[in-house]
Amino acid sequence: MSDRVVAPIDVEHATNLLRHVEPAEALEAGILTPMAGTRAVRLYSLDEAERFLVSYDGSAVALGGAMAKINYVDPAHLAHWVGDVLGDLELSAALQELADTRKPFGYLVPDMKSLIAARIEESKHVLDVALVAAK
Question: Does the first or last residue of the chain, that is N or C, have fewer Cβ atoms within 10 Å of its Cβ?
């Protein structure tokens, strides 16, 4: 995984990261299947994007055969969406750094999920602390 460390965030930043975006701002992804081709999917939050990314091992895909499914989002597109739509330039840069390695998608997924999940947890923590402080 990348050695990049993302800077801490504030309440406004955390709120923006955890929001559901408008349809025009949704992240475009796809579910790939050998028999049916690609089915377009729109993701409306960073949490949805993290859950959409699934780590597959080769045997699971091979056993699925014609019915196998792969959830796919272009890593560079994901990085740009995080920066341009959600405004997290640090996370965007870390994701772009992974995309720039040009490793196969399946090898990138665990690291992308890890970065995104950590940022989501950080955002939730920041908002929880702010809520307690406001009481």
Answer: C
Render pLDDT for 27-36 as a digit per residue (tens, 0 to 9). 999 998 877 7
109 by DSSP, 3-state: which?
Answer: helix
Strands (E), 4-134: 27-33, 37-43, 70-72
Which residues 6+ apart lie within 8 Å of 80 measured at CB?
Answer: 92, 96
What token pair was written down for 130? 């702010």
CA–chain centroid gap for 114, Å, is 9
Task: List beta partners, residue 40.
Answer: 30
Distance CA 97, CA 2 (A): 7
User: In what helix (H) or strand (E) does residue 66 lie, and over which residues does it extend?
Assistant: none
| Rounded distance between C-alpha atoms, residue 53 and residue 70, angstroms | 9
pTM recorded for the entire structure:
0.85
Residue whose pair of structure tokens reads 């019915």 in the numeric block: 67
The length of the chain is 135
Residues 41, 61 contacting (CB under 8 angstroms)? no
